[in-house]
Amino acid sequence: MGEKEVLWEAQQAAQQFGQVGAIKSIRPYGSGHINDTFLVEGDRNCILQRMNRSIFQKPEEVMENILGVTTFLKQKIAQAGGDTERETLTVIPTKGQQPYYQDGQGEYWRMYYQIEGAVSYDRVERKEDFYESAVAFGNFQQLLADYPAKTLHETIPGFHDTKARYEVFLKAVEEDVCGRAKYAKEEIEFYRARKETTCVLGDLLAEGKLPLRVTHNDTKLNNIMMDPETGKGICVIDLDTVMPGLAVNDFGDSIRFGASTGEEDEKDLSKVSCDLELFRLYTEGFLKGCGGSLTGLEVAMLPMGAKVMTYECGLRFLTDYLKGDVYFKIHREGHNLDRARTQMKLVADMEEKWAELEKIIKEVSGY
Fold this sequence. Notes:
By secondary structure, the chain is α+β, with helices and mostly antiparallel strands. The protein has helices at about 5-15, 60-80, 125-145, 160-175, 185-195, 200-205, 245-260, 275-290, 295-300, 300-325, 335-350, 355-365, and strands at about 25-30, 35-40, 45-50, 100, 110-115, 215, 225, 235, 245.
């Protein structure tokens, strides 16, 4: 479908929402890779999105989660004297008072008010921004600490079920549909040798030692809207993967992505390591934002969250390589194998620095 047709569809969808007023223009917006996003300029600027049904197969449940969480957040923000229009997303209902619009092709559309006077960053260019993102994600945990997590839908079932992902990996190795296993012998052995990593957090959850919480599950820097004047994180966005989960996983994914000294697909593995200064900085911000809402065991398991999330991500890259690159977009031959190797290097580096990571947690938390 051409750009003109897509924009025409977006214009038709935008007109289905109330409270928008006169529409001056609609154009593609942002750097997201999952949903189709548009900026609707008018009396008040809005963000319009066509949801990706191949990834989110039950859009109604996604929107039910988002509406529940943002309504709850607005109550908390109001009680604290905050700005409910800027500190969480505002879902704009359709003229029929629904949180989404379904068009004639069965596509689902939703609309939010744009967070005015705010920016997001795709890369960690200033350490202060990484710290402020940690405070914001920690505060997200703190505000939702008493939200009934079990009432949320799993928008992507088994998203962080590392044990299940390991079984999928083993099956991909066994089937070897593309004949690639012979090129990844060392990588396959690396993940097999760390099989116990797949069970640690899941077992603690099953035993009731780690609490089920509302988690974001995509804690990258660009999912925080920042105030360019104060440098503070204003609002956590991209709530599609808000689900029941573990707080240590949200922490861990941020470390995996933001505390690495190399790109996610860096070929020169000598450039890839876990930066201890950034690890400390993020820990300080995250725990400050959490405001004492985490248990002692959750705090102690933060390094394990980083290791498990890095291991799991690499496992997914390697599995996709073995299957023929069917999930993650690639831009060169062996791209997913390169990605798996960077995660391996990070895991190995974390293992070497384990005593230092645990020491940082103790120093920052006071536990």
